[in-house]
User: Fold this.
Amino acid sequence: MDRLLSMRVFQQVVDEGSFAAAARRLDLAPAVVTRLVSDLERHLGVRLLHRTTRRLALTQAGESYLERLRGILVDIEDASDAAQAQTQEMKGTVRVLAPPVAAAHVLAGAAVDFQRLHPGVNVEVHVEDASEPPVHEFDLAVLTGLSVIDPEVIVRPIVQSVAVLCASPEYLARHGDPRDPQALLQHRLLRLRPPSQRPGPVRLIDPTDGDRTLQLDLPAVLTANHTDTLLRATLEGGGISMQPVDLLVGPIRDGSLRRVLAPWITGRLRLVAAIPSRQYMPLRTRAFVDHLVDYARRNIEATRLEIGPT
Assistant:
C-alpha cells in the first residue's frame, strides 16, 4: 500500500465530501479512491468514515487522525518545496480568495507578473465579496479594511490608498466642474451602496488642511454595490463617482476621466493579505505574497505620479 497516497486521498475525500468528487479532483478512478481509503482503514485497524448512500461522516477516530494528518501532509509538501527550490522552479498551486475589485484590479495583474517569474506555479483565484470571508479555506485572502477577520489569522498589510472624486470630460463639459464641496449638490452623484444599507452622507477629507472633514447629504441618481459598475457609468458620462485611485491611472492617462475637487479625498482604503497560518505556509505562497505586496506598492507609486498628491 502507498501509505502517503492513501493519506492524501483520505484527506481529499473529506474535503470534497464524497469519493466521486475526490476521484475527479485527484484524476483517479472512483474504485481506486475507495480501495485506498479502505486500505488505510485496514492498516490502522479503525474505521475512519461512516458511509451511507447520501453522505459521509468522520468517526471520532477519523476526526483525530485527520487533525494530525493535515499538518503532516503540509510538512511533507513544505519539505519537498524547500528541497526543489534549490535546483528547480517553484511548483504547485496558490489558492487565493479576493473581493471583485481587488481580484480584477490588483490580483489579476500581480498573478500574471508572478507567473512570468515562476511559470511552474498555478494561481487559482476565487472571487467572493463576503463580510466574513472563509480565509481558512485558502492559502491566502486579499481583503479590504471592511472585512471581519479572525484574530488568529496572520494579517500582512499590502497597500494603503485613497478614494477620490472623478468624472468624464463629457459630463463636466455639460454640467461644469465643481469648484467647492457644496457645488456637488448641483451634480449627478453615482454612489456605492454598502451591503444591506442605504448610502449615508458623503465624507470629504482635505489632507492638505490637517484632514479637515466635511459631511454632505448628497442624493444619488445611481447606486450600485459593485465598484466596476459605477466606474463604467462614470466613463459613460453618468455623473461624478468616488473611486479608489488605483483604478484611475489608465482612465486619467488616456483622458477618459478627470479627477474633480482635488485635493479633497473621500476616504482612506486598506488592502491586506490574510494568511491562515505562517507555520505551514508553502514556499510558493510566501513568494506570491511578497510579490503581491511589491506589485501593489509599485502601482500606488505610479498612481501618485499620474494623479498627484493624495
Observations:
- The mean pLDDT is 86.
- The longest strand covers residues 154-167.
